[in-house]
Amino acid sequence: MSLAAIRPADAVMIAFVLLFASLVMIYNDSVVDSGRLLATYLGILFLQLALTALSRRPSNPGGRSGVKEAVLRSFHDIVFPVVAILLVYDTMTELIRGVNPRDIDHLLIRIDYWLLGVYPTVWLERIVNPYLTELLQLSYTSYYFLPLILGVVLKRKGRDAEFNEGLTHIVLCFYLSYVGYILFPALGPRYTMAHLQSVQLQGVALFEGIYDLLNSIEGIKRDAFPSGHTAVTLVVVHLCHRYERRLFRIFLPLAVLLLFSTVYCRYHYVVDVLGGVVLYGITMVSGGWLTKRWTNA
After folding, report:
1. Domain ranges of the chain
2. Nearest to 140 by CA among 85, 90, 206
3. pLDDT digits over 230-282, tens only?
4. pTM here?
5. pLDDT tens-digit map of 102-129
6. CB atoms near residue 66 (< 10 Å)
7. Residue 102 contacts residue 185 (beta carbons within 8 Å)
8. In 3D, which of 67, 36, 58, 276 has the Cα closest to residue 174?
9. Is the separation of the CB atoms in 263 and 273 below 8 Å?
10. What b/e sequence results for 141-152 when a residue is b if at least 16 CB atoms lie within 10 Å of its CB, and e otherwise?
11. Handedness of CA 107, 112, 118, 119 (dihedral sign)
């Protein structure tokens, strides 16, 4: 398969999956369930290459074959990136502990205090309110849908060039955040600061269910720094400003609430959010460079 046959987003996926697979093999003795992790990465890699090859076949818009091709391309463009990102994220529990078992929460807590003179999640107890908690938990959860909504909108409008460029940036941001978790493992204040919290977060209707669901899905991943919620959300808002101004006007206030919710709901330290802003900048610069280089290759 030639380089030109692979989209930048596909190349990003392949490169990072190979990186994580290599880490499993290098740290095989310390990575728990290394066989499952390696099988997951190789399975993703195989499907990525197969889908890339199949999607590059000449299209035949008529009849059943045309329908099958449309379904295949939609799966390749929308469904598979989401599934792959989630599967790789699920492996971070074992991979991070096997590669870098030294958590840096104590350092992040000190940086927050040095920056602000308070422990942010404790200080924010003075404004805790069930209705605000409910709103911010819903805002935090919207992170899982914002990239998908943008992708579907661009795809439905047939804006394939913008879709592919946006997909490259979003996929790159997710995988760079996973590398950040490996380099800087941290649990986050919901675990490390719990003994200092005197006010329990309570919502109105959906908060407890969503909070418990996210805890069960995410588990203990040591994924606090940098804040992927911050970085990915900012990337999506940036792309909306570039491609879909109407969507941008909807997403922008939601993004502001989402960033505040990361600290209010005790998922992240303030320095995690700042790290997410830096990751957003790195993603936009490197993603833009990669896209242009690929286009001119």
Report:
1. 1-101, 102-297
2. 206
3. 999 999 999 999 999 999 999 999 999 999 999 999 999 999 999 999 999 99
4. 0.93
5. 999 999 999 999 999 999 999 999 999 9
6. 12
7. yes
8. 276
9. yes
10. bbbeebbebbbe
11. negative
